[in-house]
């Protein structure tokens, strides 16, 4: 089983700092309900000033989304929800049912192991569309003299892109030439880029879980029924999870430094108790100094998807959050025949990737054999 690699590419940008109001999910809903007379841009600015103290679940987000008036406020709501992806649900959304006994807990986890084995070996070759929207708590004006300011908790839209990915023989590949960038997306990658969300991610975590500390957390409601949620912790000596951060500028202005960090991590895994299907996976890292990465966390949601007339449990959404030190290019000076880029290092810049997977379909290749001479030019 190969080690999952999470590659992080951050591009720096600047914006004045504003205050952040911490709110619950219910208070967020009340804020949006009271903002019916606000325009799209005005509500987007208001949402950008909020920070959730609880997780906004996908079903609750889906109910709330039609209440916002336009694309700007929707993007702000997505960023707000994604930033909350690693928090606890509101108390009212946690089922009060008693935990199952230890034997039943073991059976549920065993079914999850079987589910991952089936996912890794029985998935067909297929194509899917991956749409990535990137946010960051720093933006930049193209004026070199502008101050560079990090605004924790306030996330600015960098852009989006959509590509076709192929899942073949247990590996995830990006189809060359399939990318479609949003109008505000720069040619160079912005935010962080992740892969391995299909089989490799589940495989790495489940392999580590067999040696990790696993304990009961709670029952959680989902559209398919109650989910058994377990928490886990993997020490660094038993971890197979690798985070890679790229890049830092050299004095010549080239991107030439990458950092790999095998980290201890913890998280949650939400399982359908009867089928063993994993419908939510959370990985929260604990990366030790001197790595420039402070955080590289991922939350993935899965759902049954029909591919080629059969149903498979596949990713439908993932949220990746990274906090890292990066380098902001601030112009260059020429010394003789050498141009030296001047940089300002900015610690603890946070980036979010909101990734949606859809348009699943079976990958097939066709071969047509023509009779001798047919199709040749006269």
Describe the 3D structure.
By secondary structure, this protein is an alpha+beta fold. The chain has two domains: 65 residues, no CATH class; 266 residues, no CATH class. Helices cover 19% and strands 41% of the residues. The protein has six helices and 17 strands. The radius of gyration is 23 Å and the shape is globular. The N terminus is likely disordered.
TL;DR of this structure?
The protein has 378 residues and is an alpha+beta fold. It is built from six helices and 17 strands.
Give the SSE map.
Blueprint: E1 5-9, E2 21-23, H1 25-33, H2 40-48, E3 50-52, H3 58-64, H4 71-83, E4 94-95, H5 102-122, E5 126-136, E6 156-168, E7 171-174, E8 180-181, H6 199-209, E9 213-222, E10 225-234, E11 242-246, E12 258-262, E13 264-271, E14 278-286, E15 293-307, E16 310-335, E17 338-362
Parallel strand pairs: 1-11, 2-3
Antiparallel strand pairs: 4-9, 5-6, 5-17, 6-7, 6-8, 9-10, 10-13, 11-12, 13-14, 14-15, 15-16, 16-17
Give the tally of structural domains: 2
**Mean of residue pLDDT?**
78
**Could you say which overall geometry the principal axes of the C-alpha atoms support?**
globular
Low-confidence stretches: 1-18, 183-191, 247-256
Overall structural class, as computed from helix and strand content, comes to: alpha+beta
The biggest beta sheet reads:
12 strands, antiparallel
Task: State the helical fraction.
Answer: 10-25%
Rg estimate, integer Å: 23 Å
Total E-strand runs: 17
Output the helix-strand order.
EEHHEHHEHEEEEHEEEEEEEEE
- Count up the helices: 6
Termini distance? 54 Å
- Approximate strand percentage: 35-45%
């Amino acid at each position: 089983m190969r080690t999952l690699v999470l590659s992080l590419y951050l591009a720096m940008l600047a914006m004045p700092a504003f205050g952040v109001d911490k709110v619950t999910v219910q208070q967020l809903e009340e804020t949006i309900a009271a903002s019916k007379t606000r325009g799209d841009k005005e509500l987007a600015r208001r949402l950008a000033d909020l920070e959730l103290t609880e997780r906004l679940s996908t079903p609750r987000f889906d109910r709330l989304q039609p209440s916002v008036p336009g694309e700007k406020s929707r993007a702000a709501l997505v960023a707000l929800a994604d930033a909350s992806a690693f928090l606890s649900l509101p108390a009212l959304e946690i089922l009060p049912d008693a935990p199952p006994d230890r034997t039943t807990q073991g059976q549920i986890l065993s079914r999850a192991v079987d589910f991952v084995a089936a996912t890794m070996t029985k998935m067909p070759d297929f194509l899917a569309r991956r749409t990535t929207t990137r946010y960051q708590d720093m933006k930049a004006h193209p004026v070199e003299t502008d101050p560079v300011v990090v605004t924790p908790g306030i996330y600015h839209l960098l852009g989006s892109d959509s590509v076709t990915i192929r899942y073949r023989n247990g590996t995830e590949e990006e189809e060359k030439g399939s990318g479609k960038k949003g109008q505000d997306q720069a040619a160079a990658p912005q935010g962080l880029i992740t892969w391995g969300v299909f089989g490799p991610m589940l495989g790495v975590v489940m392999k580590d879980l067999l040696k990790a500390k696993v304990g009961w957390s709670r029952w959680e409601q989902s559209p398919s029924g109650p989910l058994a949620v377990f928490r886990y912790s993997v020490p660094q000596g038993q971890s197979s999870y690798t985070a890679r951060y790229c890049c830092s500028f050299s004095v010549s202005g080239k991107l030439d430094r990458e950092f790999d960090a095998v980290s201890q991590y913890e998280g949650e895994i939400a399982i359908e108790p009867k089928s063993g299907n994993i419908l939510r996976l959370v990985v929260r890292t604990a990366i030790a100094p001197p790595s420039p990465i402070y955080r590289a966390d991922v939350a993935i949601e899965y759902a049954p998807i029909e591919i080629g007339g059969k149903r498979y449990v596949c990713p439908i959404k993932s949220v990746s959050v990274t906090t890292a030190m990066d380098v902001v290019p601030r112009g260059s000076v020429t010394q003789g025949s050498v141009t030296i880029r001047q940089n300002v290092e900015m610690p603890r810049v946070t980036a979010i990737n909101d990734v949606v997977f859809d348009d699943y379909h079976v990958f097939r290749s066709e071969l047509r054999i023509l009779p001798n001479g047919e199709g040749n030019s006269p």
